[in-house]
Amino acid sequence: MTWFGIQFIEEINLAPAMLLDKGTARIDSVSSCRNHRTVIHHSRNGEYGIGTTRILLDQWLLDCALESGSKIIYGCNVRDFSKKDDIFNVCGYKCKTLVMATGARGYIDDSMRCVLTEQSMGISAQIEGQSSLNENCVHFWFFDQSNDYFWAIPTGNKRWNIGVWFQSLKHNSMKSFYNYKTIYIDSCFSFYEYISKPRGAFCGNIDLSRNLPQNCYGIGDFAGHTNPLTGEGISRAIQSAILFSNNQMH
């Protein structure tokens, strides 16, 4: 979570700095390597980022929602919804307005699945081990002249999120992940083990919320705010929810 996202959350009176007490990493610099030249950008004026796992982040956001009075319903496997006479039906719960967190795939009609091939794509994994990398720095290694890159983000307690981002969908993308991992990660770690194996997902650089029916709104990855090129997907997904809420109140 970048300083950009932290500011958004603080503006709605939440304290993301509390995550630092849960074993996450405080990020104070970003290292970018392109054409064998490394540039390090240091935070300033008290700015910082937070390197965390999704489990910790999601649990903290859930706790904040519960404290604000939200009702959480468990045990519902939501695969689809229906609409009749302007009433939505989701697992038996009915409403006139529906807000969807559109997720890593977006919500589109089956006939438009080809749109997903236009999305950028990321593959990530979680590892733990001894490393020579700065544990308070996000590391990017850019490929040749393209904007594609491999990343390593500390998440605290010698744990790292590592991954690769492709501007467009590529064949043999998983093979490419392992090849780049060997180049950029294996040389920096004396030992590591996987906490979670690599898996891929599309990134929300194309707004798919326009495909939702009337009175159904999309927030999150595919709500038209995500900019995966800057590595701020989570921050922008949260921003989309805050902007939506502000617009509804006005």
pLDDT average, as an integer? 86
Distance between the termini: 28 Å
- Helix fraction by DSSP (H/I, runs of at least 4): 10-25%
Number of helices: 4
Shape: globular
Runs in which pLDDT lies below 50 for 5 or more consecutive residues are none
Count of distinct strands: 14
How is this structure best described in words?
- The chain has 250 residues and is of the alpha+beta class.
- It has a single domain, classed as FAD/NAD(P)-binding domain, CATH 3.50.50.60.
- The chain is built from 4 helices and 14 strands.
- The chain has helices at 3-11, 54-67, 173-184, 233-249, and strands at 25-27, 29-34, 37-42, 49-51, 82-84, 87-90, 93-95, 98-101, 120-131, 137-142, 149-156, 159-166, 189-203, 216-219.
- It has a 7-stranded mixed beta sheet, with helices on one face. A 3-stranded antiparallel beta sheet has the order 5-6-7, with no helix packed on it.
- Helix 1 runs parallel beside helix 4 (233-249).
- The radius of gyration is 19 Å and the shape is globular.
